[in-house]
Amino acid sequence: GQQVMQIPQYQHVQEGEDFTTYCNSSTTLSNIQWYKQRPGGHPVFLIQLVKSGEVKKQKRLTFQFGEAKKNSSLHITATQTTDVGTYFCAGRGAQKLVFGQGTRLTINP
Amino acid sequence: DTAVSQTPKYLVTQMGNDKSIKCEQNLGHDTMYWYKQDSKKFLKIMFSYNNKELIINETVPNRFSPKSPDKAHLNLHINSLELGDSAVYFCASSQGVKESEAFFGQGTRLTVV
After folding, report:
1. Nearest 5°: phi and psi at A101?
2. Are strands B10-13 and B108-112 parallel, antiparallel or unpaired?
3. How far is B13 from B40, CA to CA, in rounded Å?
4. A49 touches chain B (CB under 8 A)
5. Contacts of B98 in chain A (CB under 8 A)
6. What's the pLDDT tens digit per position in B1-18?
């Protein structure tokens, strides 16, 4: 079945450092979505990428979709304490959204 | 108004009991989901309904029975609860099954003792 792998599982950074999480799918995806879950909260949609090689930015966040539509990355520039949480990628295959294991980001202020 | 609401938020129960979790969405979406998030934060899809029809059943034990009385509601009933059922259960909804984002409820933390 479809699998979505995400690395790293945990990342601890100093405030102001950059952060990147990577996502790989075992199958070609129709699109990929990114979600953020704050501690004790629920996943909240950040963005969706649809086109091969697509790059989208949201302020300090940069999202990329690979050329083969099987991998994606999220890069945060100059992290702030408000960035703390778990970041999930989710790949759309046949009728379902499959989530990666998530990357838990903690930040030292 | 909360877009996707689940009740209860917390549920503590003994092994062997039967319990239900309710979910309602007021977004007008036609697709609803149940996800289970374990202690390692892994989000695993359990069920998906589109227009009240079950379209995904991810090899979940048949002690778990979803019910969708209408497009706005998807409830989850669990029989004979086991310790391993302890987790956070998230309801979510989306418009369609292909392109759109999923909106999640606040989650129900189930603890089986």
Report:
1. -75, -15
2. parallel
3. 21
4. no
5. 30, 92, 95
6. 679 999 999 999 999 999
What does DSSP say about strands B10-13 and A61-65: parallel, antiparallel, or unpaired? Answer: unpaired
Choose the closest CB to A33 out of B50, B101, B106: B101
- Residue B85 main-chain phi, psi, to 5 deg: -80, -10
Residue in chain B closest to A32 (alpha carbons) equals B99
Residue B84 burial (CB < 10 Å; 0-12/13-18/19+)?
exposed
pLDDT in tens, B74-109: 999 999 999 999 999 999 999 977 768 999 999 999
Q: Which residues of A touch B45 (CB under 8 A)?
A: 96-99
Tokens 């690979």 map to which residue?
Answer: A66
Nearest CA in chain B to A103: B41
* Position B85, amino acid: D
Check if the beta carbon of residue A2 is closer than 8 Å to that of residue A93: yes
- Check if the beta carbon of residue A43 is closer than 8 Å to that of residue B104: yes
